[in-house]
Amino acid sequence: MVTLTTAAATSSNAPELTFTLKSNELGGQLTNKQYINGMGFSGENQSPQLYWKNAPKEAQSFAVTVYDLDAPTGSGFWHWVVFNIPGNVHELQSDAGNPAKKLLPEGAVQSNTDMGTPGYAGAAPPDGPAHRYLITVHALGNKLELDTNATPAFVGFNLHFATLTKASLLVYGQKH
Description:
Low-confidence stretches: 1-11
Largest sheet: 5 strands, antiparallel
Distance between the termini: 64 Å
Structural class: mainly beta
Number of helices: 2
Oligomer: single chain
Radius of gyration: 18 Å
Mean pLDDT: 91
């Protein structure tokens, strides 16, 4: 019997793996699934499927946000804010942002978006250049003591202090 040992697995010089966010649904552009159904759009209003790899071992929970950097508001626009995703969960399925479907893992909390309600609010960029949508997963050192009534800015404030590391996808959306 021969036992093989991989040097990288036992060496203290092994490269660190990068915390990474990915999606099987998204490339560089939003699909019709992620646009709102209304405001001149015929989208499906579904949050995207997302998964993350190489989270720090210290992560007690995760948060996911979707933010339109280019919304004509002076402060951007929060399309989705979900936190207290258990630390052993590393994927959210498509449409998990629909509160009626109850697709989020137990304990996860969706707080208000800039639409004033919890859950995913589909993209609805006005005519003009493409908007940048920043989708971020935060690895948190603890759970947040907030509920569905928390504003996106207040959740963001709390995320700032609880985040161990984060990973993002940048996708584009435009009115056709």
